[in-house]
Amino acid sequence: MKKYYIETFGCALSKFDSSTMDSILSQNGYEKTEYPDNADIIIVNTCAVRLDTEAKIIKRLNEIKKSYGNARLIVSGCLAKARPSLINKVVPNASLVSPQNSTKILDVVKSENRSILIEGDRNTDFLPTPPIEDSIATIMVEEGCVDNCSFCITKLARQTLKSYKPRVILDTIQKLVDKGVKEIRLTGQDIAAYGLDFNPKFRLDDLIKIILDKVKGEYRIRIGMMTPDKSMEIIDKLLELYEDERIFKFFHIPVQSGDNNMLKIMNRNYSIEEYKYLHNKIKSKYPDSLFATDIIVGHPGEDEEAFQNTVKLVKELKFERVYLAQYSIRPRTKAASMNQIPEVIKKKRSLVLNKLIKEIEEKIYEKYVGKTYKVLITSHGFRENYVVGRLNNYFPVAIKGGKELIGKTAMVKVNKATYFDLRGEIVDKSKDNEDLILN
Q1: CATH number, domain at 395?
Q2: DSSP string spanning 258-292?
Q3: Whether 318 and 343 share a structural domain
Q4: What's the confidence (pLDDT) of residue 117?
């Protein structure tokens, strides 16, 4: 029995593709190993979104070539698709698999041609059942997008929009819930674009509605990242669906910059005024929701006024979570040919904004201390003898306890707030409140 080892870089989409390959190989007589030195086949599933990540991947490929040169090396994912010549230069004997073709991993492994290149469209009629991590499963419902942002190399890797058929999504979710999964994470490159490639159109709100109607059992849904312009097209219907307690009151909608001119340079299809309107609409309906956003600092064209407009937006909207990144030049993108912002300025702006974000978020998190909430416990914690639960708005709570709590719902008192999570404990059991662990 041949052994395989998978190493993954990147986002939830990359992890989904890794789980697909893992599932196919394990079901076809291959044995997974946690150590590359035991493996006959080494798969490195890559990410292309940032320069520093690319550098880590190249360093790792060189290490594998040097230390495990006898193993069959397969490089999959976004970097294999977006920069195949770079991969071929570093590891010329590696097989390359585009992210759309993770389902063809068996063909690659069985091929005697070590330098095989697998490309083509994703098969959206087939959705492999993803692995269950504690009580969580992640499902890719679409790949690609309909935009062309100036900074994004992922567009070259994930390419045009391809949405999975509603039927296969429903079947997969029902199988997972039947196996005891409590948290379903729906993910995609732009989940708000789901179904735009269908004729007739079948949008994200339509998908969520039939999931809630058709999938039986106890579960919660976390809806993934949505672009602002596509969100605005369906937000009214989505907000109605969010009334269902099975949906976490969580919104991840990247703004990228607080300056209208920068949004035009970035090829983002909305204005700051429209974004504020969207944010206000969501917060008016669900004031305690977790609203997360992404911001890029130092994109070409960002002068001091543009940066200050971003600072002003963060102060005004007070996001619960901000994913901040310094602009990273990526080849074959529009922004790569523009005049670049000096690194020292990017770092300075990043420090200023990060300090502000931390101050705002810490004040938000402190509001939870001393209060008791109904919490769904979904996974192991990062520390030993701790588990992680989620509030109704998806805020994470670290709770002291063992694995027997995973998948349960409990009443938890929050005792402490950190920049990363909340810390709490299950309210003490007594003869009067034995039902505080609810199920």
Answers
A1: 2.40.50.140
A2: S-HHHHHHTT-SS-HHHHHHHHHHHHHH-TT-EEE
A3: yes
A4: 73
